[in-house]
Amino acid sequence: MPRIIAVDAIDDPRVEPYRDIRERDLVGRLGRFVAEGRVVIEKAVGSPGCRLESLLIAAHRLDGMADLLAKLDDATPVLAASQAIIDAIAGFPLHRGLLAIGRRIDPPEAGPLLAALPEAATILLLSAIANHDNMGGIFRNAAAFGVKAVLLDSDCCDPLYRKAIRVSVGATLLVPFARIPAGTDALNLLAGHDFQVAALSPRGRVELADMPVARRNAVLLGAEGPGLAAHLLDRATTVRLSMAGDFDSLNVATTSGIVLHQLFAAARRPPA
Hints:
By secondary structure, the protein is an alpha/beta fold.
């Protein structure tokens, strides 16, 4: 069981990483991230890809969190303070009463990540997904439907932004992901690892129900509005979702859930 350290002042230097987190989110600062709430922190504790550096918890919640705290490394500092002090440190009312600072361990590069995947795998390739709610929703769907990895181009936002982690219910801490450097031919990279690419577009040539399914499938998703670049659509199997009336598109996170469920169900179907 880690040692509980009482904090009774908002200027205690040990809480510096938690100060004003809404305004100064720690994403991009030496690889750290902020995890918020019990469910997300449980995911972080169980993730082989990250390590928690410290926790900040409302003192009145200590007894109710004893089972979670018992899973921590004994060397992980647990800072306990009153709810009022925690709210002042964070810069807003923190109703969950629990924060953690973590660090991603040895983030993989795209090529080695793909090379290490099993023979049968579904992955996501995300292009210019800049909305943190969408990023979190996509990762939540990826975890729910067994996606083995997520690749992000250089125009995507960070999956470890605090809001993205929260919306994903901790899935961004569990599903392996890698950045593709600007200028990389992502589709060529996928072809080199035997992935069949399906690109989602309202103008797709193939209806989702008729989408070809292989042992290795990559689903390519772009930002809402502009969609995917033409040079990507021209080199992939384009897939559409039929809709009623004049609607021709869905929220990208919703689309990811529909398509990934289709592939998940196909993989579980017994051979004909």
